[in-house]
Amino acid sequence: MNIATPNRSKSTGHTVCPHDCPSACALDVEIGVDGRIGRVRGAAENTYTAGVICAKVARYAERLYHPDRLLSPKRRKGAKGAGDWSEISWDAALDEVAEGFLKAEQAHGAEAVWPYFYAGTMGQVQRDSIDRLRHAKRYSGFFGSICTNMAWTGYVLGTGALRGPDPREIAMADCVVIWGTNAVATQVNVMTHAVKARKERGAPIVAIDIYDSPTIKQADIGLVLKPGSDAALACAVMHVAFRDGHADRAYMARYADDPAGLEAHLESRTPEWAAAITGLSVDEIEAFAALVGRTKKTFFRLGYGFTRQRNGTVSMHAALSIATVLGSWQYEGGGAFHNNGDLYRFDKSVLTGEAYRDQDVRFLDQSQIGRVLTGDAEALRHRGPVTALLIQNTNPMNIAPEQRLVAKGFARDDLFTVVHEQFMTDTAKMADIVLPATMFVEHDDIYRGGGHSHILLGPKLVEPPETVRTNLFVIEELAKRLGVADHEGFGMSEREHIDRLTTVNGLPGYDDLLVDRWLDCQPDFRTAHYLDGFGHADGKFRFRPDWQNGRAPNRPPVSVGILGPSQALPEFPDYVELIEVADAAHPFRLATSPARNYLNSTFAETPTSRQKEGRPEVMINPADAGRLGIVDGEIVRVGNMRGDLRLHAKVTDTVKCGVLVAEGLWPNHAHLDGEGINVLTGADNVAPHGGAAVHDNRVWLERTSA
After folding, report:
1. Start and end of every 4Fe-4S Mo/W bis-MGD-type domain (predicted)?
2. Judging by beta carbons within 10 Å of its beta carbon (0-12, 13-18, 19+), is residue 261 exposed, middle or buried?
3. If exposure means fewest CB atoms within 10 Å of the residue's CB, which of 12, 397, 565, 686 is most exposed?
């Protein structure tokens, strides 16, 4: 049973939300006399969290003490996916895992083993220790492409660095633009600071998205455009800025590479041109351009969602460029912010085993796991098969694109799969060995904010059930059994790793952070706003990005090279039709947007989240529904060249004609046919550095009789 260890008295513990979200909220956790956690609250003392967190994390006790939590190691007995298991001891399980990996290595070489992980925890130690085992054993490399590549690449190719104005300055803005992220559902703290600007300064909130999201409903101005058309809107806004005298020519002369070339390029990118592409009216575009043009202190909060298109890198760069044309960077409460990844000075070399990384080991693309496991030669880099997997912190059977290929790969009889998890996810169901994992309040770790500027300590607050183990434990025990435990970095505790990460570069260690809780790494105003120059060698913002050779935070290894149709990328900010354009056979564009009560596939197991979300549905505009004879609640079939599945129709004017939205990554079994929405998404690479365009899908939709 999942029973907590009693505590002597009721107390409040301090930690960090570990999940895949830029907010990395500082948390205050009630701990009862029975040793169980109670209510979870945002830390009021943290100036970014500001006491506010999302509802799903506030009720985390529901997840921690869920009756279906995995509490013992399991060995598969029957067919893969059949759900027939036997319980085994930890020692027996780890022995079998090591034996399976050694067999794979002996048959096909070390690259036959692929440690596969992602952001189920954002804790540096529990997430990244798997790389130390990878490098020590020379297992296949992991190119983590699925989430950030398009956004980070587009931003850094403009600014030269992955950082920006202090996001707390949103509260000091005279206009807040929330572009391509449903902050109400996915980054609640953005709304905290935006609403403060509206209340205290009268700042209008503008939200830009592809449907009438909860954020647009709370905004003063909502711009609902066609999926993949964001760059066209950005270009038209900059056109108006030059046309109407809002462009800050003196600023650009000092800080940008080719403002004259940009102005000439944008002469034909009129609001009329953009209206035809975006579906917005000319009046909407003109009004938005005039608002930001005359409002110097406009804060552009640029999200991830709008970059998950095949032209997403270009869209991020184009939206980012508006702040440079207007000179918004010069003002407190102005500029464009996406992520602060460059602020932190962690030394992860020992944690990840960089000293024994072999540059000749192949890298495999996370997003293309379906192709890898089904023997695609290009995905395998023209080398041998993957016959063993170690999976931590992710659920590829549910969240990876081309789900039918993924399922086919996991069903291979010759594939030995080990999953270390908290619940019996879709991926765990396909494993040969399942290992039960701790949750964040049950182990030590350290975190950093993407959406803010803090390093935060997440100390262990409660004892885990006796039969579950940390990610670090699994890596350490496998290292012993696989003969690499003598390599540097093994044998260290979480606290020792935290101290090594931080103190080498002069940051406070575990004990100091335990007292202070977090460290604010926000640079001074001039640095944050690039007033001493942007991050490129010449200090200039790039209107003309070097798509192939420019700096990018997560570019593919040299052995992989440039990805996607990079030759089609534009010289200046522009709309490029690299997306899956709707056609006669596929008249709809489908986006798989986040749900408010889920976070990727996490929280989809908790009763309250599932109750609030209802069931898997696809939103369709009433005019489209009427034309097809579809009524609200009816079962429909959606499909494309990758597959098809049935969903219930939600007829709503939340979406525009020609656009479908399916919110949330539901467990596959929650769908009518046992397959999830990622049956419809593609794994082809987005130019120039890869990534998955999961919101960019052309599909057909039809009524079905059952």
Report:
1. 10-68
2. middle
3. 12
